[in-house]
């Protein structure tokens, strides 16, 4: 790998100190490097448009945090470029590198001393008043959550068209294995190896003492319907892909989630196992 694109969260390297240093280092070693500054929050600003990426680009260095990497992965999914994250934030499970590691990592990348992991993604679309809404894609999770009044909503969940359960909760998280260490973990869901092939269904603050996460095959299709809770039928929910709100649903509307056809390509340089990384990351913040 000789030709790189650097995507930098502007707020984490506002003066481009690290970005320019890496670019100069790559070019000094005979490679090429283009740069793009993201605001780290808006999906439309997560990565350059496909036509603006040099054709010889072979890999992407993402400087920021897990959120910056997740949004870049979704934006670049059709390019099939492998990405590796450099953590400039706080706790980053997805970003393998820290700032102190980046130049040694560039050396390994330029020697083709790396592996590429294919990470499962989720695709989803809404059905509102019988109309199918545009689909979107997520690397971490699709979250359906209440909006407006501070009250629970009724979320009726079906798997492959078969009724599973009704959750009276603040919302529900449908997560990939990669996303298991994100919102899913905060909501009490299980942590799984990011290379696994499965979906995790985790309610958010379910009004039920025995509520648990449900793990299903990656080949299943999950449909969530917003059910009626009171006679006014004025409940509303929002659907977020990797933390970015996309769709608002009303009572009777449905949202369908299944495994996406595309996968995210994540570079891995270290032989450190997922469990070792997990233990190290968690112990650093306990």
TrEMBL record:
* Residues annotated as signal peptide: none
Q: State where NAD(+) binds.
A: 66-67, 71, 140-141, 168, 170, 181-186
Please provide the record's keywords in A-Z order. ATP-binding, Cytoplasm, Kinase, NAD, NADP, Nucleotide-binding, Transferase
* Superkingdom, taxonomy of origin: Bacteria
**Places the protein is found:** Cytoplasm
Q: Which PANTHER family match?
A: NAD KINASE
Which residues act catalytically here? 66
Report the function annotation for this chain.
Involved in the regulation of the intracellular balance of NAD and NADP, and is a key enzyme in the biosynthesis of NADP. Catalyzes specifically the phosphorylation on 2'-hydroxyl of the adenosine moiety of NAD to yield NADP.
Gene3D superfamilies recorded? Probable inorganic polyphosphate/atp-NAD kinase, domain 1, Probable inorganic polyphosphate/atp-NAD kinase, domain 2
Q: Which GO terms describe its molecular function?
A: ATP binding; metal ion binding; NAD binding; NAD+ kinase activity
- EC code: 2.7.1.23
Q: Which reaction does it catalyse?
A: NAD(+) + ATP = ADP + NADP(+) + H(+)
Which cofactors go with this protein? a divalent metal cation
UniProt entry tagged with the keyword Kinase: yes
| Name listed for the protein in its UniProt record | NAD kinase
């Amino acid at each position: 790998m000789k030709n790189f694109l650097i995507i930098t969260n502007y707020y984490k390297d506002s003066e481009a100190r690290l970005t320019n240093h890496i670019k100069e280092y790559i070019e000094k070693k005979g490679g090429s490097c283009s740069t793009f500054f993201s605001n780290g929050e808006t999906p439309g600003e997560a990565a350059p448009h496909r036509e603006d990426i040099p054709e010889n680009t072979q890999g992407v260095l993402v400087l920021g945090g897990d959120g910056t990497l997740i949004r870049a992965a979704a934006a670049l999914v059709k390019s099939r470029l492998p990405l590796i994250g450099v953590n400039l934030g706080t706790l980053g499970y997805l970003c393998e590198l820290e700032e102190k590691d980046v130049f040694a990592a560039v050396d390994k990348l330029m020697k083709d001393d790396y592996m590429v992991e294919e990470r499962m993604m989720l695709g989803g679309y809404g059905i509102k008043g019988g109309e199918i809404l545009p689909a979107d894609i997520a690397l971490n999770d699709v979250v359906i959550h209440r909006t407006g009044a501070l009250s629970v909503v009724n979320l009726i969940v079906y798997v492959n068209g078969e009724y599973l359960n009704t959750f009276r909760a603040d919302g529900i998280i449908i997560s990939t294995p990669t996303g298991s260490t994100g919102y899913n973990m905060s909501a009490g869901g299980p942590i799984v190896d990011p290379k696994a092939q499965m979906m995790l269904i985790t309610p958010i603050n379910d009004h039920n003492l025995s509520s648990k996460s449900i793990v299903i095959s990656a080949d299943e299709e999950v449909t969530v319907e917003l059910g009626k809770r009171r006679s006014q039928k004025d409940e509303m929910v929002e659907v977020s892909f990797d933390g970015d709100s996309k769709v608002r649903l009303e009572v009777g509307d449905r949202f369908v989630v299944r495994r996406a056809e595309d996968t995210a390509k994540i570079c891995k340089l270290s032989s450190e196992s997922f469990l070792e990384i997990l233990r190290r990351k968690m112990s650093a913040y306990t």
